[in-house]
Amino acid sequence: MYWRDSWFKRLQVAVIAKTVYPLVSILGWTLRWRVEGLEYLDRISVGGCQPVMAFWHGRILGATYYFRDQAIVVITSENFDGEWIARVIQRFGYLTARGSTSRGGRHVLRELRRRAASGYKTGFAVDGPRGPARLVQPGVVLLAKVTGNQILPFHIEAAKHWTIKSWDRTQIPKPYSMMALSIGEPIEVPKDASSVLIEQLQVRLERSLQDLEKRATVMLDG
What we know:
The chain is 45% helix and 19% strand. The protein has helices at residues 7-30, 38-46, 60-66, 80-91, 105-117, 139-147, 195-221, and strands spanning 32-36, 52-55, 72-76, 95-98, 121-125, 151-158, 161-163, 171-173, 178-183. The strands form two sheets. A seven-stranded mixed beta sheet has the order 1-9-6-2-5-3-4, sandwiched between helices. The chain has a two-stranded antiparallel ribbon with strand order 7-8. Helix 5 packs across helix 6 (139-147).
């Protein structure tokens, strides 16, 4: 049975969303930040474009709080979890494109392309929605190709955190934790990129995110 057909599931979605939003807000208010690489974001904006912001799915909580209210549209699935997540992040100022790049991918990519053309940044958990973890899926590169916008990789790491036993090993920062945000050099995707080049750029993005994770760890140690 589809979850929307159950009044109890619909109630659960509403309760979860109304509970999670204030908890994340309070937690986020306590966090302290060390940030590097903002000049890359500024460079894209000055050029009159908007970035395709790329990160690991397991860092979605920190990313949601730090980049709140910045006119970013993100993908959320149409299942039960996707619904309450969408309601939470919308309250943080995000727009949502419902669907998946693995199921109905063309539809959601068209929606993201339309939003990007209207001046919105796009946020992309590059190994979502189901993994494998830390493996870049082609959707983010395809979006950069059709929009002409550059991929902006970033990584967020918490000095003190809990790790959920999920496929993506979601990280939940502990209150008053120091956070490190490391933003990497943008990656440009040619409009005529071949399938071979797209695969090569996926690998390049993976390596960039791995390097940014190491850099964020060093930032916390410093």
